[in-house]
Amino acid sequence: MPRRSRRKSHSRKKLASEAVNDLYDVLNENKDHDISNSAAKLILRIGKKHGTRVRNYNGITICRSCSIAMVPGRNSTVRIRSKVVKYTCGVCGRVKTIGPSFVM
Is the pTM of this model over 0.70? Predict the structure, then answer.
C-alpha cells in the first residue's frame, strides 16, 4: 500500500510541474493584465501545494506579497548594480533581489 501512494504523489508532482510550466508560458505570451495576474496567482498556489517551481527564467517574476506578475517597464522596475539584480514591485513596493550567482 505505501508504494501505491508514493507513485500517486510522484505523478501529482509531475503534473503540477507541467501545469506550472504551461501557466508560465501563458504568463509570458499574454499582454492582458487580468490573465497574467491570474496565471501568477495559480503558479504561486500550485507551487505552495506541490512544491514545484518554474525552471526557465524569461524576465517576468511574480511578487510574493500581492501575487501579481511583475513585468519590467509595465508595473515594476529593474536595477542592476554590482552584479545584483533588483526587482521592485510597482504596486506594493516590495524588492526582490537576485544575487551574483544567478544564471539566466
Answer: yes
